[in-house]
Amino acid sequence: MEKKLILRILLRRLVGYLAVVAAFGALMVPIYSLMHQQTERAEMADVAEQMAVAVNELQGYMDSVRFTTNRLFNSSEVQLLAMSGPERNTADGITKNAVNKLLGDLVYNMNFSTYQYITFRSNELVLDGTRSVDSYERFYDNVLRIQNVTREQWTQWQNQATSGMWQVEDVSLNRNSYTADYLLMRQSYSDGAGDFDGSLVVLMPLDELVSLFLSGENQEQCLFYLKDSDNNLLMRYNFDDQKALNLGEGTQLSNYHGERHIFVSMQLDNPHISAVVGVPYRVYASQLRQVDLAMLGYVMAGFALSLLLSILFTARELNRLRPVLCQIMDEATPDNRYWFEGALVKKLVSSTALTQELESVRDKLEHSQVEALLKTGYLPSGAEKELQAVLGLTEHNYLLVIPRAQMLQAASPEVHLMMLARQVESCYDQPCYVCNMVEGDVVVILTLEDASEHRLYDLCRQTEQLHDQLGCAGALVLSGCFETIRQMSEVYWQARNMVAYADPTQKVCYLSSESLRRVVSPEVTNLNRLREYLMAAQTEQAQELVRRQFHVDNLSIRNFQQAFYGVRCILLDVAQQVGCSDILPLCENNESLSIRKRISNLCDCCFEICSHVDALRRSHNQQLQQKILEWIGENYTNPDLNAAMTAQHCRVSQKYLSQFLKEQTGRSFVAYVETLRLDRAMELLRGSDLSISEVGAQCGFATSNTFYKAFRRKYGMSPSAVRGGAVPAPEKEE
Fold first, then answer.
1. What is the pLDDT of residues 480-510, one digit of tens each?
2. Distance CA 524, CA 530 (A)
3. pLDDT tens for each residue of 351-390
4. d(Cα 442, Cα 325) in Å, to the nearest integer?
5. Residues 6+ apart with CB under 8 A from 477
């Protein structure tokens, strides 16, 4: 018997601890997966961020090429040179030198450019910043030559009316050969009238372009290419295919030549080309492996620690249980009804595991099930009859709460509970169910066969005697009668809520007990209504309800105290919720004061709490309104700003926003925002060198026409007049 019981305890505990280990492992699997994904996403985001910076820089360079082309061909010297005609004699050397100098000055800031020149289709004149050549043929032969590009193909490029990009290699400049790949960018120009047209051609080295997109020590392992809208390759690096990959816009994982790559594809606005960067996944695999190894180490350490603790705890409990079991087995048998009380109270020290085993031998439900029923009201299907039989409920049942009984401090909680149960049963002279709650309070379920006045009087007298025997510091709480097991939870919470606020001078706090001539506890409905009045800052209603609680005939001292502590419970609870900590002195049951004065103090508490709640509401509204004004002040330069956007950001309705601005500023939302913009525009017109259209754009006006109309409507004059020094008339109050 002893060995079987010890073995059962050992296996039960060990399995329980191993379940913790299994739960730990099950928890670590999704955590590992999440960290792996987050690391992978972080690496992909890093590649995408570098790509975005490179694309913006390349886009800016191309915009610079277009801007330079427009400035060149809009200059008077280039127009004179381009319109000189095929004979090329009307443009003198001074004009050509001026154009060469202008070309050199404009392209000076093109950091990635190796060589630039301009051509004119009308007279086949070519200038490269240092010289001028009077024909395509002589320029191609004497100045510039590109391997694998014939003279006919090069001439065809010059005659095309559209811009383009091509990849070329092994360029000869001034008879000196440069073996490298280049990106040839040609930006065409036409004056629209057909008088003249031409183009600016820029050569960019591939290594400069690659350094822009692929930086760092892993550059040689990555690939890069540019493609047009038809998926034709314009320039490539470490990319062997003849056609671009079929990739979507953004970041994605894809295979290239059997190896997994992180591909980032981004499109340039003008010209319509796309840049693609591919980074081998193995570049970031080492960092992912570090995450995997770290997580694996954590998991293994957790498994080892959990297993070790499970073995140690099991051995410790087994060591503590063995001598106690040996003594109990020697001195008592399960058939002896006093075996549980006598042997355990005399010889047991403290063992939760042994107590649970003995409870199962006792053939009663564990207290945890009763505690769950009391706290939640939940009862599993099919368990009602079983629990009804265990508790021994009748038609007349009462619930007694013993708040943290102070006795037998040296005994364990289990031994304490069992000795307390014996004392309770001897006091009431009947079997009782005693349950120890987690909070330390003890719940006793009392059952009566009849509810006569004499029997109820005995119940109250016995409860007061129990208080004296236990020597409790606080009052015991005895509930009213309940019939069914499903009413226990509601009765328990009524008693539990009264524990903290019961009159400490009383022995027993009665809740709707039929043994008294009148119900002395406040009705739950009135207390709930009092809580609602306080939270709604309705001072007069709350004070009137408090006064009504004490307007009863022949109000005894005990009844007054019961009503006083019931109201005090609600006041302190609401005060704690709203952070009103100044009412505690007013809630004291100071017997040196008259009853009228103590009731008046409770009413003053209601006033303080309602005033505090009202102040919290006003403070919240002021913070919200200040937030609205600050947000509009920070975003009024956004042309897309509207009432819906503001209401959504500040989490208010558009109706509230409009009413608030009307009350605060006297203007609607549109008028208020327009006033901010026009005031700012007036400051910029007087104190900056920005153009009028730039002032309107910076102040949030979508178009210059809208800015002009709004400015004239408010100030009665145009912005240009203010810029000229005119002073607007004082604004009329609306």
1. 888 888 788 778 877 777 776 666 667 787 7
2. 10
3. 454 454 444 433 344 556 677 777 766 666 667 777 777 7
4. 28
5. 400, 401, 403, 495, 496, 498, 499, 502, 508, 509, 511
